[in-house]
Amino acid sequence: MPYKVYFLSLGCAKNQVNCEQMMSLVQSAGHEIVPDPAGADAAVVNTCGFLASACEEAIGHILELAERKRAGELKKILVTGCMAQRYKEDVLAELPEIDGILGTGSYGDIVQALDQVMEGGPRPCRLGNIHTAPQNGPRILSTPPWYAYLRIAEGCDNHCAYCVIPSLRGKYRSRPMEELLEEAAELSAAGVKELLVIAQDITRYGTDLNGKHQLAALLRELAGLDFHWIRLHYLYPDEITGELIETIASEPKILPYLDVPIQHCNDGILKAMNRRDTKASIRTLFKTLRQRVPGLVLRTSLITGLPGEGEAEFGELCEFLREQKIERAGVFPFSPEEGTRAARMEHVDGEEAARRAEIAVDVQSDIIDEYNQSILGEEREVLCEGFDGQAQMFYGRSYAESPEIDGRVWFTADGEPEPGDFVTVRLTGVMDGEVTGERV
After folding, report:
1. Which of 48, 55, 113, 299 could form a cystine bridge with 328, CB 3.0-4.6 A?
2. Rounded to the nearest 10 degrees, what angle do helices 110-119 and 13-28 cross at?
3. Are strands 379-388 and 393-397 parallel, antiparallel or unpaired?
């Protein structure tokens, strides 16, 4: 008997890909994917477990679904993903509303787990091997039709002192290039125009297969497919090779937008966090990238309140931001995550870490404002994504804005550009930290 199944995916794009694969498996088994939990037979919550705050968000969604279950609008709740993997015993013990869990090594078991849940027997607790779980498989895209993610590897071997990902996702495993190119060709044939190449660390791609960095070679192959834009996310600073820089600089489809998480700039903190960079090496890398890649927009991630950060070290971080003028930055207060080495190190309290994060965000806001002013008058290619009736303006993204994490470009236009169309926009103004313009 077919079920009606609702999916909710939380957290990062890599998690979203897992959810898309699960949806495809469920649909292929003859069940119906529904857009709303009301009236569904089962709800699948694909959770993030990276930070305590992400777990709290997931629990909030689970409790909302539990209310629907009590009201008779929903029959079963299955929890999958990183939180289920990280806190399996706690999830089952403290959330009796849940009917089963599926860990990060068992996404391929979604159909069998649903069958178990719907049959009403013992709650399934499937936790496969996180180091060997398959990564491929068909997907039902949950992004707008004009962009999609290509996850080129799973897991992480960097073992940063503050991070739980290796214990949730396993060792680093690159996917075979032939498999990736086949999946990318399918995405291209489906009409995807912007391909986002993702992994916890894309720069390490291929090194576990034959000891050689293969990202540059993969990108050259992807650029031969019918994509308009190729965007790169999570390049580990000390793994960026000269060949990779040359490929990015010379291939027009690869956007001059690079997400290079540095977390901090103080040498002592970087070393304590098991990062392999120094302030000098980061500075040299950014200088090289800006020299070789015209119009480069850098994105990074920063953590305030890390162990070893006093006022002097925090001031150093803010000064480094002002010096480097990094166009995009996500700033997060340090979260001492259970099971990490950093959690056992001396650090400021959460309130102070949050205060510093707010200050760093203010510094970053000034940098963004300066950048936005500097590009006024330019004409940029913009991927139209919709029309806002209240603002009476179209909106979209240029190469400088990645979906979900950066802002938008707002513009007026004669005619009616459709979502998914590329248009040329002359940038003329700024509105709430985002740029505005008019279609040329």
Report:
1. 299
2. 70
3. antiparallel
Query: Tens digit of pLDDT for each residue in 1-53?
Result: 899 999 999 999 999 999 999 999 999 999 999 999 999 999 999 999 888 88
What are the φ/ψ torsions at residue 116 (nearest 5 degrees)?
-60, -45
Q: Are 238 and 284 in contact (CB under 8 A)?
A: no
What residues contact residue 348 under an 8 Å CB cut-off, 6+ apart? 305, 309, 334, 356
| Calpha distance 261→236 (Å, rounded) | 7
Name residues whose C-beta falls within 8 Å of residue 178's C-beta, 6 or more positions apart in sequence: none
With b meaning 16 or more CB within 10 Å and e meaning fewer, what string describes 290-314? eeebeebbbbbbbbbbbbbbeeebb
Percent of the chain's residues with pLDDT above 70: 100
DSSP-derived secondary structure for 303-369:
EES-TT--HHHHHHHHHHHHHHT-SEEEEEE----TT-TGGGS----HHHHHHHHHHHHHHHHHHHH
pLDDT band at 429 (very low <50, low <70, confident <90, very high): very high
The answer to whether residue 121 scores a pLDDT higher than 80 is no
What residues contact residue 359 under an 8 Å CB cut-off, 6+ apart? Answer: 304, 314, 318
Give the CA dihedral 295, 299, 304, 308, nearest 10 degrees.
-80
Token pair in block for residue 217: 């070679």
CB 193 within 8 A of CB 228: yes
CA-closest candidate to residue 231, choices 239, 219, 241: 219
Residue that is written with structure tokens 């103004």 in the block: 429
Neighbour count for residue 232 (Cβ, 10 Å): 22
Cα–Cα distance measured from residue 43 to residue 185, given in angstroms and rounded to the nearest whole number: 31
Alpha carbon distance 320, 187 (integer Å) = 39
Measuring CA to CA, how many Å separate 10 from each of 50, 54, 80, 100? 11, 8, 10, 18
**pTM of the predicted model as reported, rounded to 2 decimal places:** 0.94
Close Cβ partners of 107 (under 8 Å, ≥ 6 residues apart): 18, 21, 22, 80, 133
